[in-house]
Amino acid sequence: MDQQNDLKELINRGDIDTAIEQINHLLQEESAETGKDMLFYLRGNAYRKKGDWKQALDNYQRAIDLNPDSPAAQARSMAMDILEFFNKDMYNQ
What we know:
The protein has about 90 residues and is mainly α. Helices cover about 75% and strands about 0% of the residues. The radius of gyration is 14 Å and the shape is globular. It starts with a helix and ends in a 7-residue tail after the last helix.
């Protein structure tokens, strides 16, 4: 899917807001039923790159809900590991 490659390129270049905007548009299209898990995964990557961990994790989870074999499962696991490492005190409040 060329759209996914274009979105990955936008995210890699740091044009995060444009990527999120395009993903949001694609997710609203009725016909985009297949591949929605990948769009949520990519949107998760975009939010992670912005430093918005909550939105990243939420999008990864939505991708996993649609497709348990999505690469979002590994991405979510790695994000949780990072957050647990940097926010150990979060659990002690």
